[in-house]
Amino acid sequence: MRKLTITFIIVFILPISIQAQIQSVECRGVVTDAVTNEPISYAHVSILNTKRGCTCDKDGRFTLSLPQGEHEIRFSAMGYQEKRMLIRSQEIQASEIEVSLFTRTIVLTEEVVIANRGPVRDLRSLYDQNMNTIDDLSNKIDGVALIQRANFTSEPSIRGMSSGQVAAVVDGMKIFSACVDHMDPVSAYVEVENLKKLEISKGAFDLRFSQNIGGTINMITEKPDFDKNLFTENEVGYESVSRLKRVRSVVNVSRDDIAMRATFSYKRAGDYYAGRNNRVSRSGFEKNNYKLDFSKKIEAEHQLDISFIGDNAWDIGYPSMLMDTRKTKSQIYSIEHRWERTSSRIRLIESKIYANHIEHWMDDYDRDVISRSVMKDMYMPMFGQTTTVGVTEQALIVDKKQTLRIIGEYYYLDAFADMAMESITKNVSPMYLVNLGSVGVNNISLAVNYDRAVSTRFYWKLNARSDYSNRNVHNKTGRRLLEGTIDTPLHQTYFTAAISSVMEYHFSPAYTMSIALAQSERMPTHLENYGFYLYNIQDGYFYMGNPNLKPEQSRQIEWRLNSQHTASQYQLSVFYNTTSNYVIGVLTDSEFKTYINTDRARIAGAECSGTLNLSARWSIAASASYLYGENDELNEPLPLIAPLQGSAAIVYQKEKIWLGLDARLAAAQKRIASKTTLEDKTNGFAVLNIRGSVKWNSHFEWKFGVENIFDKLYHEHLSVNNLPGRGRNIYAGIIVTY
Ligand SMILES: [Cu+2]
Q1: From the CA of 571, how far away is ligand 1's center (Å)?
Q2: What is the 521 CA–ligand 1 centroid distance (Å)?
Q3: Which terminus has fewer CB within 10 Å in the chain: N or C?
Q4: Quick one: the chain helix, strand, coil %, rounded to 5?
């Protein structure tokens, strides 16, 4: 019997007590300066999404007791960029780990990292795991609002600025929409499986990629992974609101110094339903997207990347507009060479050649042209295309306390659009118009970004940029039409210069305050210069371009406060800008509007957000933003200004499961631009969503959610023609990885 008891203890009790002892693993290491290799005294080490952490001693050494499982550890120190590492308790060895940190620089852009393929960083990126489109992601960033024209895709607006005032680039490349009516924003060409992260800068404080006054959205795409010999990820999904079916597939192969990645996705949606079962007719679409990437390492320091994105879409319903998209086709090519040297002052030299071609067909053959008021009894099929080729050269020079980034770029854009007007009466022969007569834009630019750590508490950044542009109309018919209505030469040159400065002060490791100042310019778009007979749904007028437009000029100031603790973080920002030469359309005769410069427009606003980890499992997040826009010349509010709005979320997470409940609230918008647009007042609303995901094992993941649980019928203020928001949507997806 005693023998049996001992056996029982050995077999059952002992393993349990040993198990209990190894619940936590000791992780030891040292934190050093990446350039000098010297230890960093009193650096902070914390386990993310918990309240645990420790501080290094004066020799940079730390001992952290790590619970079982996989954890994301954050290393931070005053004057250094923080670093995050994924550490698995079972892989910890007896030797200590070395963590090197780079000197801090001011980061102006907000990043949304797609958490699907990496560690979860914060509450927002946790949510991003569940997102199906780029629109879903940008919607989560304070200050970004979406101009909705269809269920297909939306055009982002940053702090009340949109269109030519903000730049949307893919891996820094310029891509121009082919549709003259904003039906094909650049974000439509990057699907989430190809998106590594979204970098959003608000205002004119970061001008690395484009001259603008409103901000930049840079979609950084996923590249081949050299560490994955053979990896596949496949997903099927369904959304009830539009009976959307979706498949996507990713394959990554690598061997030695070569890696390749290929993706394909397809989706098809029917008409969607707004709240209370209101079917929005002609709102379906069908699309596919593929991306091919090839990367090769050449010796230790060089890498070559070749990338191709193809995107095709058909029969896209645009319920808020006069026409639907029949077909779009995009091809985006790039070749990039990177020379990266971690030990040298010249840290990086990057050269890139890119080209892209976009085609777009739209028509109103499915519309009732007899009973409409605009262009009655007339079909208007339209075609548009853009071709852009460019080269960029980038150098990054790093010194102990300062970094310098220089980016030079040249690109050429050719944009063409034409249309026919076909009368429904048989004997009338159709008319032909050229809307954009092969507009050729040559653009050359130089951007300089200088960062300096003045002391361990004080950082300073200077961003300067200059662009030169030379443009003209090359199509014969296009020239003749424009010259018939405009009595100035079509050829135009522009020169713009912009400068911004950011000062950041660290009161303590937890609190940072910054002040940013900018003076920036943006050139007119090729449409504002040379568009001919372009219909604008927002005010119901046809527009004529103006080659003599001056660049818009904007002066901006922003104040920010950041606070970061082990279990929480908060941000607050207040900003104000004033734009002169503000471009609006004015009536020239009873029928047409022409773009002119006016003086001046003002936008002010505030944003705040915060996340708080209540425990290892529960977290909450909330954010709010407000914008005020006024056109001083017309004495009326600016159009397309989002109302006071906010969101709140509560998330529960365990190793294999997470669940979140979130609400989006918008107040009414009564300040509207009645002189320049047809926009009307919008009521406030609240929408409640629930989402979640379950990882069955390392191969299977299930994600699901119910959006607009109470099936509210509402519309966003930025929805063109009051296009209603989506009603109750039940979605689900299964992801299989190998
Ligand atoms: Cu279009």
Answers
A1: 39
A2: 28
A3: N
A4: 10, 55, 35
Ligand 1 geometric centre to CA of 111 (Å): 30
Name 351's Cβ contacts closer than 8 Å, sequence gap at least 6: 336, 337, 391, 392, 393, 394
Structure tokens belonging to residue 384? 């548009």
CA of 177 to the centre of ligand 1 (A): 9
C-alpha to C-alpha distance for 684 and 675, rounded to whole angstroms: 23
Residue 248: which residues within 8 A CB-CB, separation 6 or more?
191, 193, 234, 235, 263, 264, 265, 266
Q: How far is the CA of 383 from the centre of ligand 1 (A)?
A: 8
Q: In angstroms, what is the span from residue 507 Cα to ligand 1's centroid?
A: 51
25-29, 55-59, 251-255, 645-649: segment of lowest average pLDDT:
25-29
Cα-to-centroid distance, 347 and ligand 1 (Å): 44
φ/ψ of residue 482, rounded to 5: -65, -45
494: helix, strand or coil = strand
Report the separation in Å between the CA atom of 208 and the middle of ligand 1, taken as the mean of its atom positions.
29
Reference 333, options 289, 293, 372, 298; nearest CA is 293
In the DSSP assignment, the letter for residue 116 is: G
Q: How far is the CA of 148 from the centre of ligand 1 (A)?
A: 14
Return the pLDDT at 125.
Answer: 62
Q: How far is the CA of 362 from the centre of ligand 1 (A)?
A: 5
579 φ/ψ angles, rounded to the nearest 5 degrees: -120, 125
The CA distance from 252 to 228, in Å, is 7
Q: Which CATH class is domain 110-737?
A: mainly beta
Q: How many whole angstroms from 634 Cα to the centroid of ligand 1?
A: 30
Domain ranges in the chain with CATH number 2.60.40.1120: 24-101
Distance 420 CA to ligand 1 centre (A): 14
List Cα–Cα distances, 53 to 10, 56, 76, 507, 700, in angstroms. Answer: 35, 10, 11, 21, 32
How far away, in angstroms, is 183 Cα from ligand 1 center? 5
Q: Where are the beta strands (DSSP E) in 104-243?
A: 110-113, 144-148, 154-158, 166-170, 173-174, 195-202, 215-221, 230-239
Ligand 1 centroid, distance to 501 Cα (angstroms) = 39
The CATH number corresponding to 24-101 among 2.30.38.10, 3.30.450.20, 2.60.40.10, 2.60.40.1120 equals 2.60.40.1120
What's the 3-state SS for 603-636? Answer: EEEEEEEEEEECCCCEEEEEEEEEEEEEECCCCE
Query: How many whole angstroms from 107 Cα to the centroid of ligand 1?
Result: 36
Q: Where in the chain is the domain with CATH 2.40.170.20?
A: 110-737
Longest dimension (CA), the chain: 110
Among 59-63, 139-143, 238-242, 282-286, the least confident range: 139-143
CA of 134 to the centre of ligand 1 (A): 20
- Which tens digits make up the pLDDT trace of 649-664? 898 888 788 898 999 9
- CA 176 – ligand 1 centroid, Å: 13
| CA 178 to centroid of ligand 1, rounded, Å | 8
Q: Ligand 1 centre from 328 Cα, in Å?
A: 9
More confident residue, 122 or 380: 380
Q: For 11-40, write each residue's pLDDT tens digit.
A: 444 444 444 444 678 888 899 887 777 888
> At CA 80, angle to CA 79 and CA 81, rounded to 5?
135
pLDDT reported for residue 126 = 60
pLDDT, tens digit, for every residue of 349-377? Answer: 999 999 999 999 999 999 999 988 888 89
For the cut 80, the answer to whether the pLDDT of residue 117 exceeds it is: no
Taking the centre of ligand 1 as the mean of its atom positions, its distance from the CA of residue 421, in whole angstroms, is 15
The sign of the dihedral angle between the CA atoms of 711, 715, 719, 724 is: positive
